[in-house]
Amino acid sequence: MDTAVRVRGLTKRYGDVQAVGGIDLDIHAGEVFAILGPNGAGKSTTVEIMEGHRTRDAGEVSVLGVDPGKPTRAWRSRIGIVLQTANDVAEATVRETVRHFAGYYPGGKDPDEVIEQVGLTAKADQRIRKLSGGQRRRVDVALGVIGDPELLFLDEPTTGFDPEARRQFWELIGGLARGGTTIVLTTHYLDEAEALADRVAVVSGGRIVAEGEPETLGGRATAKALVSWSEAGERRSLETDTPTRTVLELTAHFDGEVPELAVTRPTLEDVYLRLIETPA
Ligand SMILES: Nc1ncnc2c1ncn2[C@@H]1O[C@H](COP(=O)(O)OP(=O)(O)OP(=O)(O)O)[C@@H](O)[C@H]1O
Predict the structure, then answer these.
(1) How far apart (Å, rounded) are the C-alpha atoms in residues 191 and 193?
(2) CB contact set of 114 (below 8 Å; sequence gap of 6+)
(3) Ligand 1, residues 10, 13, 14: which to mutate, most atoms within 8 A of Cβ?
(4) Distance (Å, rounded) from C-alpha 128 to C-alpha 139?
(5) What value of ipTM does the predicted structure carry?
(6) Is 42 touching ligand 1 by the criterion CB < 6 Å?
(7) Which residue's C-alpha comes closest to atom 26 of ligand 1?
(8) Count of C-beta atoms within a 10 Å radius of residue 242
(9) pTM
């Protein structure tokens, strides 16, 4: 498998703050990789170093085979970056803005197609200033993909989106991924990571504390199940390795339907919260 991003021993310090304290990372070409972690964990610093927007103190970084500390124009054109909302083009319309950015990428996508892809066709002639927060974010995404990048960085892409807009955005990202674009995103939404990411890394205190597929992260798939039900007006629950047996026993006990029966495993959020509680 081709490697899109390779990071070894990355460190970055701001004065007294060790923002990144030795990160190793491999992101494969074509995968969607999510970086999770609490505020101040070092996610943005790591991603901005990969983007070539921040210097590093030590370590090796290779992005599409190039050291982002020595970026070339050709390399930049292969990378898309969705930053937090840019307000400087607020007076222009959606179409004018997307067309303007398309001009930087001779081999890029058709502006109207991209506007359609991000669901802004009906707003194409509206000034960006008059869009809602979520709609502006879609413009940011349009600008990130207009150059048809091989690798797309998304920093907290759906902050401010309503639930429907988030779903549409997930579909957009899923479509880009199916088309072969490698995607690196940071997010605070665990359901977003679960819906989109092939693999996730949890960063805490400038280090990776866990890495893997969202379904199995932190032993999630093999964790004990929680069986819960109602009895004599009270909620009862039991943690068990053999939930099927527990349910059979409960069925016998109640001689049929178990009132308000639920069987659950830890969610990605449960696992995540446990991981960031434990110092690396
Ligand atoms: N330019 C800077 N100067 C000084 N300290 C900084 C700078 N940028 C980040 N830091 C510090 O480095 C640490 C990591 O910050 P970073 O922005 O990488 O975290 P993050 O995981 O992206 O957080 P968030 O989820 O809040 O965006 C924090 O303690 C932050 O205060």
Answers:
(1) 5
(2) 98, 102, 142, 145, 146
(3) 14
(4) 8
(5) 0.96
(6) yes
(7) 39
(8) 12
(9) 0.86
